[in-house]
Amino acid sequence: MGKRTRIINEPSDLVPLLRAFGSDSHKKVFDFLQKDWKTEEEIEAEVGFKPAESLDILKKSGLVESKWRMPQPGKKPDKEYHSSYSRVHVNFQCTVEDLSDLIMITFKSDSEIRNYLEMIEKEVTEGNQSMNGLQRVVDKSIMFIRGVAKRSPLLTVKGQRIELAGEAE
């Protein structure tokens, strides 16, 4: 199967991408999925740990796709995963301040950005989903808010809105 190029036009897309490759375990899972379609059990047998968190981050960054494997008759189907891309093309422009915010968001621990995550998740749950509305409440730049939302497993960025991940599917 020919590999594709992931085109990144939005600076906040760097957050999940850098998080995916800032960890040896996530990188190991990605490298293993470059070869072929694999189930979670096959990945775990190869890398030696449960790959659920790595798969979530890789899916959020758009680097992994999934499909259902056809089972043997009478057996339950398994979801299998494969890396979608082998190349990345980055094409965006932003301020140094926004870029520094995104890098900071990427590499800070969960506890260090928890307050912002909780504030944004609470606002979105209460119906404040627009970037401008969130910017007034959080008192940070729209790029900062987008970056924090990209780190959250509960939030999805949709244009100028942030939604709960369940609403997007």
Explain how this protein is built.
This protein has 169 residues and is an alpha+beta fold. It folds into 2 domains: 4-90, Arc Repressor Mutant, subunit A (Orthogonal Bundle); 96-168, Orthogonal Bundle (Arc Repressor Mutant, subunit A), CATH 1.10.10. Helix content is 50%, strand content 20%. The protein has helices spanning 14-21, 24-33, 40-47, 52-60, 96-107, 110-125, 131-138, 142-151, 165-168; strands at residues 4-8, 38-39, 64-69, 78-83, 85-90, 155-158, 161-164. The strands form 3 sheets. Strands 2-4-3 form a 3-stranded antiparallel β-sheet. A hairpin with a 2-residue loop joins strand 6 and strand 7. Helix 1 crosses helix 5 (96-107) and helix 5 packs parallel to helix 8. The longest helix is centred in the C-terminal third of the chain and has 16 residues, at 110-125. The protein is globular, with a radius of gyration of 17 Å. It starts with a strand and ends with a helix. The mean pLDDT is 90.
